[in-house]
Predict the structure.
Amino acid sequence: MASDIERQSDPTRFGTEAFYASIGRAFVAMCAFVPVLFLIEFFDKLSGNRLDQEGGIRPHHIDGLDGIVFAPFLHASFDHVLANSIPLILLGTFVLADGGARFWITTAFIAIVAGVGVWFLGDANTVVVGASAVIFGYLGVILMRGVVGRRLWYIAVGLLVALLYGWQLFGVLPGDPDVSWQGHLCGFLAGLVAAVLFRRRRPRPVEHVDPLSLGSDLS
């Protein structure tokens, strides 16, 4: 059985001081990252949207494969960045709070899977940019972590954000030609898988063995 001190020092245990400290640090980090996206969009506008054209994903085009790396940092407009900012901060905070290394490998996995999905399934006459595929991936991570780790607060956070931005959830289905539903769907599925692949392994409890009882069995 874990002691009270061990419980309070566990950043994954809801309600502990370590948990709130981890959430706070992650929130500050995500808030600091969003201005970078606005800065990139600023330079994109100065270049006449050249960054989008050269760094976005161009489905079915070999020269558009590098967009898998760059597209999550690029956006079609400042409104596009703004629309992604709040859900990115909220969902990214809870994904990051579970560990920096796990956050980066999870993010990379989501971006690559979603990007490859867009490249194979997207319209060849489009250029796809935006962090929304990663955002949907984070939503998948949070929901699946709640199921796999039996952490109800994870599920509650995922459902709350889903309700707040419920109109965006329809982005996983074909509809608006200006919305990459392929990226959203592949990102969400990648998030579900990432939550299982990169989940936190908790050590198994060590059973206490009474040497006196062993001696009695051998006698």
